[in-house]
Amino acid sequence: QDTLEITGTFKQCKSNLVREGFDPNLVQDPLFFRHDQRKSYVPLDSQIYRSILDLQLNL
């Protein structure tokens, strides 16, 4: 998507952003996660996403 969805009063529609959250299976754009052990940003994949949800990794 090249443009932002806006309302009739030119406000950004946030409902899709809220629904997608940071789930890499729903978000079309690349997502990255700051990995403390590696001290760098790594692509957020399904495995890292699941680890965050399971509280094995901290944001």
From TrEMBL:
It comes from the Eukaryota. GO terms for cellular component: endoplasmic reticulum membrane; plasma membrane. Keywords: Ligase. One of its GO terms (molecular function) is long-chain fatty acid transmembrane transporter activity. GO terms for biological process: bile acid metabolic process; long-chain fatty acid import into cell. Belongs to the ATP-dependent AMP-binding enzyme family. PANTHER family: LONG-CHAIN FATTY ACID TRANSPORT PROTEIN (PTHR43107), LONG-CHAIN FATTY ACID TRANSPORT PROTEIN 2 (PTHR43107:SF4). This is S27A2 synthetase.
